[in-house]
Amino acid sequence: MKAAVWYAKEDVRVEEVPEPKPDEGEVVIQVERTGICGTDLHEYLSGPHFALPQTILGHEYSGTVVDLGKGVDGFRVGDRVAGVGVTGCGVCYYCRHGLTGICDNPTFIGLRRHGALAPLASVPASALFVVPDELSLVEAALVEPLGVAFHAVRRSRLAPGETVYVAGAGPIGLGVIQAAVAAGASEVIVSEVSPRRRQAATELGATRVIDPTTEDAVEVTRSLTFGRGADVGFDTAGVQAAFDPATAAIRKRGRFVVVAAWERPASFELTGPLLREIELLFTFCYEAEEEIPQLLKLIAAGKIKAAPMITSEVGLDAVVSGGFAELRDHRDAQVKILVNPSA
Description:
The protein is an alpha/beta fold. The protein has 11 helices and 18 strands. Strands 3, 5, 6, 9, 10, 17 and 18 form a 7-stranded mixed β-sheet that branches. A 6-stranded parallel β-sheet has the order 13-12-11-14-15-16, with helices on both faces. A 3-stranded antiparallel β-sheet has the order 2-1-4, with no helix packed on it. The chain is globular. The two termini are 12 Å apart.
C-alpha cells in the first residue's frame, strides 16, 4: 500500500510500505479520512520537532475496524471508529491518576510511530472510540483536534455566563469557540486576520469577530465587557502579534490558556499580568478516555459541528501539493484539509 512518510523538513514522500498487522493490544483500521494537523505542518516546514524519520504521518483519523490484535476487548470487526494521536502508557504516576494526556511515556501516533496517512493503520486500541450512528466518518476525523479544544475549555474552568476571548480561528480556535458556547459562555470574542476563518468563527458561534489589522482587539473586548476584559482567554494562534493583545484583553484575576504550539520562542511582558493577577495555564492534548466520549456525544447532538471546518479534501498522492504546500502557501484560505488515503 502507499503511505505518506516523513523523512525531514519539506521531505514527505508518498511511497510503498507493507500493510500493517496488529501487535498485541492493537487494532487495524481501514482509514476513511485523515486530517492534516498544524503539528504535521510544523514538521513539514521546520521539523524535526517530534517526528522521527521514515514515520507514516497522520494522527487525526477515522475508519472501520478490519483486524484485532491479541488481548483487544471492546471492538469488533466492522466498528466505525475515530482515533486520537496521543495515548498513555497506563502505568506511570499520571496515567494511574487518569491524566493520560501528560503521561511520562506517551505514544505519539503519526509522529513517533506509524500513523494514518495510509489506507490501513494499526494503532493502540486505547486510541480508538466507537463513532455514534448519527456521525459520519468524514466528520469523525476531526475528533482529535476538537478533543484538544474541548480539553482546553475544560481546563479553563469556564463557568456558564462568563465571557471568552479567542486568539486565532484555525481548527483549534474554532473548536474552542464551539466548546465554550456548549459550556455556556455568554460572549465569545474572536480575533483573526483571515477573512475565511473570521467567517467560519461567526458561523460556529462567535458573538463578535475582530479583524486585528483594522480594529484594536483590546479596546473592542473591553467595550463589550463593561471595561473589565474577558473572563477567560485562549491562545490558539501561536504568534506574538496575537498573543500580546490576547493577554491584555483578560480581566483582573481572569484565566488565560495557551493551547497553540509555537514554532518560535515567545516573549511575555509580565508586569501587566502580574498586577492583574492573571492565572496562566497551558494545555497539550486531552484526557482521551474521559473526554472523547463526551465530545462524541456533543458532536452527534449537533452542539459541536465538524463539517463546516472542512474546507478541502485531497487524495493521498496529492498530500504534499494539495495538503502541506497548500497550507504553507494559502493557509488563510483553508481551515481543515482532509486526506482520503484510498483515493
